Amino acid sequence: MKGKNMKKMNFTSLRCSVILLFAAFTLTLSAQPEQQNKKLYSFNRQGVYYERQPIRDADYRTFVDLGFGYAKDRYNVYYMGRILPYVDPYTFSLRIAVKPYPDDYSMDDDYDDDDDYYRYIITNNAVIYRGNKISDSPRSFKDLGWGYGKDSFNVYYKGKKIDGAFTSTFRVLENGYAEDTFESYYKGKKIK
In sequence order, what are the beta bridge partners of 129? Predict the structure, then answer.
């Protein structure tokens, strides 16, 4: 009799443990979308805020949250709460670079492709990487994947210009490797 009661208690405790684990897993999953959809900007008649910090001189009447950390009003364009002084708010709009080959992106720990902070943002008059203007040639700019991009004049790796790279023959291979007519590159640096 004792053996049956012990087995029944073990089964009951196992069942309770599974239910608790399932509940914990469900709560974890339901909390994730809230974190991912967190609004960075908020505004009301008292002012405009980036992560609850006021943005001085922002116009709440014309303020628009554009996503990806960008926003604008009639006076300025903002990235992560900072004014981008070189961007005209009247012509600024986001055109997100599309992955040419979705499976060809790096899975390096230092480059999270799904994070919008690590993408090239192409606007009407500039190319921006992590809030910094890197190119004045948005019409010719191409996101090549693996952190590489190029316009008619320069090749970039994670927003930094690669000196001496030939744009006309530059091509991305995979796993951070690339080449042009004369050189091979790994993560934006020449291989010697």
Answer: 120, 132
Least confident of 7-16, 39-48, 127-136, 157-166: 7-16
Q: How far apart are CA 104 and CA 38, in angstroms?
A: 29
Q: C-alpha distances in angstroms, 172 versus 6, 113, 115, 150, 177?
A: 63, 16, 21, 11, 6
Q: How many CB atoms lie within 10 A of CB 129?
A: 21
Measured from the Cβ of residue 59, the count of other Cβ atoms closer than 10 Å reads 16
pTM, to two decimals: 0.45
CB atoms inside a 10 Å sphere around CB 17: 10
Cβ atoms of residues 181 and 158 within 8 Å:
no
Quote the tokens at residue 153.
């004049």
- Between residues 2 and 53, which one has the greater pLDDT? 53
Q: How far apart are CA 4 and CA 9, in angstroms?
A: 9
Half-sphere exposure of 95 (CA within 13 A, CB side): 13
Report the amino acid identity of residue 60: Y
pLDDT in tens, 118-149: 688 888 888 888 888 898 888 999 988 889 99
